[in-house]
C-alpha cells in the first residue's frame, strides 16, 4: 500500500532524494539570475540593474558566462536539500518520540519548528563550502572559472576556514 515504511532507512533516503531534486535542480536553474544578483552586490557601479547585469555579463563572458558557478550550486544545494529534507524527518520522529504521542500532537507546531531548525543547522554546514566557492567564481574575476580550480586555491590560501566563513550568516537567515 505504501512505497516504504514510515521512519525506515528507505523513507529517509527517499526524503533526502526529494531534497536533492527540489533544491539542487531549482537553484541550478536560476544560476544566471543568482550570478547577476551577486555581481550587483559586489560591484553596483558596474552592474546597475538586473537587465544591465545580464547585458554586461553577456558582453564580457558570452552566454557561457551566465552559467558560472553552476557546479558548486548544484552540488551545494543538492547536499543542503538532502540534509534539510532527510534530517527534518529524522528530527521530527526523534523529537516526537521524546515527547510521547499525545504531547507530540499537542506541541506539533513547536516540534516541526525544532525539527526544521535542527535539520537546517546541518544542511547549512553541508552547503557552506560550495556556496563559498560559487561566490568566488561568480564575483572575483580571474580567481577561478571552475569548481576544480576554486577548491584547491581556496584551501591553499586560507585552509579549511575558507569553506566555512559563511556558515554563521547562513544560520542567521
TrEMBL record:
It is a multi-pass membrane protein. The keyword Nucleotide-binding does not apply. Solcar repeats lie at residues 10-94, 107-173. It catalyses: phosphate(in) + H(+)(in) = phosphate(out) + H(+)(out). GO terms for molecular function: phosphate transmembrane transporter activity. GO terms for cellular component: mitochondrial inner membrane. GO terms for biological process: mitochondrial phosphate ion transmembrane transport. It comes from the Eukaryota. Interacts with PPIF; the interaction is impaired by CsA. Inorganic ion transporter that transports phosphate or copper ions across the mitochondrial inner membrane into the matrix compartment. Mediates proton-coupled symport of phosphate ions necessary for mitochondrial oxidative phosphorylation of ADP to ATP. Transports copper ions probably in the form of anionic copper(I) complexes to maintain mitochondrial matrix copper pool and to supply copper for cytochrome C oxidase complex assembly. May also play a role in regulation of the mitochondrial permeability transition pore (mPTP). Belongs to the mitochondrial carrier (TC 2.A.29) family. This is Solute carrier family 25 member 3.
Amino acid at each position: 500500500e505504501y512505497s516504504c515504511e514510515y521512519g525506515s532507512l528507505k523513507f529517509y533516503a527517499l526524503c533526502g532524494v526529494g531534497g536533492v531534486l527540489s533544491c539542487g535542480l531549482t537553484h541550478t536553474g536560476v544560476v544566471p539570475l543568482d550570478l547577476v544578483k551577486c555581481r550587483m552586490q559586489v560591484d553596483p557601479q558596474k552592474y546597475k540593474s538586473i537587465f544591465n547585469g545580464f547585458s554586461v555579463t553577456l558582453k564580457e563572458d558570452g552566454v557561457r558566462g551566465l552559467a558560472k558557478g553552476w557546479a558548486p550550486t548544484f552540488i551545494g544545494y543538492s547536499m543542503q536539500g538532502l540534509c534539510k529534507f532527510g534530517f527534518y524527518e529524522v528530527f521530527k520522529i526523534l523529537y516526537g518520540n521524546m515527547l510521547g504521542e499525545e504531547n507530540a500532537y499537542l506541541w506539533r507546531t513547536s516540534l516541526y519548528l525544532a525539527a526544521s531548525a535542527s535539520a537546517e543547522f546541518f544542511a547549512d554546514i553541508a552547503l557552506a563550502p560550495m556556496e563559498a566557492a560559487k561566490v568566488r567564481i561568480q564575483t572575483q574575476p580571474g580567481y577561478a572559472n571552475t569548481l576544480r580550480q576554486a577548491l584547491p586555491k581556496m584551501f591553499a590560501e586560507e585552509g579549511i576556514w575558507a569553506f566555512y566563513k559563511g556558515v554563521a550568516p547562513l544560520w542567521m537567515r
